[in-house]
């Protein structure tokens, strides 16, 4: 679930002004092909359901596989990081399909800009954010190595609180009552877990390693919150457009940079030397070792595709909400498959985290409704042929 921080992670909050469906385009399509309206509606809902399954199952399975890798003998933190990122080529067919024959704008109030960012500026954005993704993924990998998966996933929920704080300074987010409520609840949730940092609750690891895992997971969550805020800032101030094409290019190029940085870390740190021995000594056998790594890579990318699909079919708000729904899934599955202890404090922490998620999403739902109203009023004042041009 750490990639609710990173992959996800990337896709969760591209900004409060995320893509809304082009109302003029929908109306024109309906008028031209009224007989196909019902079929298109069912096709759209089928896609939404499919993408939702990708998000929920990808997030849960990838996190559990990551923990299984470490529990059964995996020791490479860099390899645990790489499987989160290296599957980005799977997004390329999805990218080609969704921009052909033309790209559709994601936000009606975004106007085509004649002054496009320079290649140097774009490269700088991709490299900086890509390196931040790699760092966040590495910290999350350390957390997953030392913490019970249920504890890890609950701490990851604090990324929304960090996102709100960073957005206040970077994107001038207003602190409303639901946002403040969310900050308080998510902070208390993580604090309760910190107070219960005994070795018996952490699968037998030492208190020192538990503390390291806890601190790294919190730092990774903070980095994820910073990443989301900077991503939004980059779209608004540098890229200056929020099209499907621009969004997917951001994800793919960032993942490429992050993957390259992780490979460098794997070789520079010398962990690559122990991978053969690690595979041979893996408790479940070589085949299971390889299947675990491949499965982790595929499921993280399934999560990414699902999140991207929900952003394009509905909105970033809806994609965030689905990610929030998946919060209780990982701890519950961890109790079933890893026999994690769901003691009283951890159960209370999970309830507070879910409550904080709901409060956070409620505020974004209100902002989303306000944005829709403003967009609709703007459309009434403009003829259809003046709706922004398609970005090729």
SSE topology:
Elements: H1 23-32, H2 37-71, H3 77-85, H4 91-99, H5 119-146, H6 149-156, H7 159-170, H8 177-195, H9 207-239, H10 244-268, H11 275-280, H12 286-313, H13 316-325, H14 329-337, H15 344-380
Helix pairs in contact: 2-12, 2-13, 2-14, 3-5, 3-10, 3-12, 4-10, 5-9, 5-10, 6-14, 7-8, 7-9, 8-15, 12-13, 13-15
Task: Explain what you see.
With 392 residues, the chain is mainly alpha-helical. The protein has helices at residues 23-32, 37-71, 77-85, 91-99, 119-146, 149-156, 159-170, 177-195, 207-239, 244-268, 275-280, 286-313, 316-325, 329-337, 344-380. α2 packs across α13, α3 crosses α12 (286-313) and α5 (119-146) packs antiparallel against α9 (207-239). The radius of gyration is 21 Å and the shape is globular. 47% of the residues are buried. The model is unreliable at 2-35, 103-113 and 386-392 (pLDDT under 50).
């Amino acid at each position: 679930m750490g990639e609710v921080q990173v992959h996800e992670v990337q896709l969760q909050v591209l900004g409060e002004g995320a893509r809304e469906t082009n109302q003029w385009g929908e109306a024109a399509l309906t008028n031209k092909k009224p007989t196909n309206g019902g079929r298109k509606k069912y096709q759209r809902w089928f896609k939404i359901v499919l993408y939702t399954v990708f998000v929920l199952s990808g997030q849960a399975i990838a996190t559990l596989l990551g923990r299984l890798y470490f529990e059964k003998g995996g020791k490479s933190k860099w390899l645990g990081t790489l499987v989160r990122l290296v599957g980005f080529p799977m997004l390329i067919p999805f990218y080609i399909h969704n921009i052909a024959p033309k790209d559709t704008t994601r936000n009606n109030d975004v106007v085509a800009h004649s002054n496009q960012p320079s290649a140097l500026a774009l490269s700088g954005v991709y490299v900086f954010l890509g390196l931040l993704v790699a760092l966040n993924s590495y910290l999350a990998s350390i957390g997953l190595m030392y913490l019970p998966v249920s504890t890890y996933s609950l701490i990851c929920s604090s990324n929304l609180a960090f996102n709100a704080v960073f957005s206040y300074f970077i994107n001038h987010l207003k602190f409303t009552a639901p946002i403040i409520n969310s900050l308080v609840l998510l902070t208390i949730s993580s604090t309760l877990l910190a107070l219960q940092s005994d070795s018996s609750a952490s699968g037998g690891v030492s208190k020192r390693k538990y503390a390291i895992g806890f601190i790294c997971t919190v730092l990774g969550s903070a980095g994820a919150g910073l990443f989301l805020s900077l991503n939004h800032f980059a779209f608004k101030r540098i890229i200056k457009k929020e099209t499907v094409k621009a969004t997917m290019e951001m994800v793919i190029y960032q993942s490429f940079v992050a993957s390259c940085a992780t490979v460098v870390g794997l070789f520079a740190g010398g962990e690559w030397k122990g991978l053969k021995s690690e595979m041979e000594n893996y408790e479940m056998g070589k085949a299971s070792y390889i299947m675990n790594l491949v499965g982790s890579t595929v499921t993280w990318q399934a999560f990414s595709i699902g999140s991207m699909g929900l952003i394009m079919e509905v909105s970033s708000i809806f994609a965030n909400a689905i990610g929030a729904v998946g919060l209780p899934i990982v701890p519950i599955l961890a109790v079933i498959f890893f026999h994690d202890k769901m003691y009283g404090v951890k159960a209370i922490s999970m309830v507070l985290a879910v409550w904080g998620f709901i409060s956070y999403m409620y505020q974004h739902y209100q902002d989303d409704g306000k944005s829709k109203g403003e967009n609709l009023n703007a459309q009434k004042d403009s003829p259809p042929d003046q709706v922004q041009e398609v970005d090729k």
